[in-house]
Amino acid sequence: MSTKIKIFFTIVLFLVIANVKAIAINEPKEMTFIFSGKILDANHNELLSGVSITATNCEKTIYSDLNGNFFIYIKVKDASTFKLEFSQVGYNTKTLNLADLSGKTSNIEVDLLEE
Asked: Does pLDDT of 26 surpass 60?
């Protein structure tokens, strides 16, 4: 193979690698969130078990334990669309986005109203 062809292919390879790195750098970084707290009946101030908690942008669902406690660990690429939905039969669904949580990640109290 001639020297000119080798140089040409070296330059093309360099440009391809540079573009791949540029694309990888511009991808949104994955963020990890860990939230925990308890869920209460808003009218009776009683803890609610079996409430489903769904992280809407990554479609992960967990349920509150027998004492109304929850713990959810999620990874998201776009925090602006992040939402947690709390729902249980007989109660209105409550949706919280990241701004509603005001940076709070633990000891979150969620009150659900009966339908």
From this structure: no
List the domains of the chain with CATH numbers.
31-112 (2.60.40.1120)
DSSP 114: B
Q: pLDDT-derived band of residue 115, with 50, 70 and 90 as boundaries? A: very high
22 pLDDT band, cuts 50/70/90, is very low
DSSP string, 61-101: EEE--TTSEEEEEEEES-GGG-EEEEE-TTB--EEEETTTT
Predicted TM-score (pTM) of the model is: 0.72
Contact 70, 64 (CB under 8 A): yes
CB 112 within 8 A of CB 91: yes
Asked whether 29 and 57 are in contact (CB, 8 A), the reply is no
Half-sphere exposure of 54 (CA within 13 A, CB side): 10
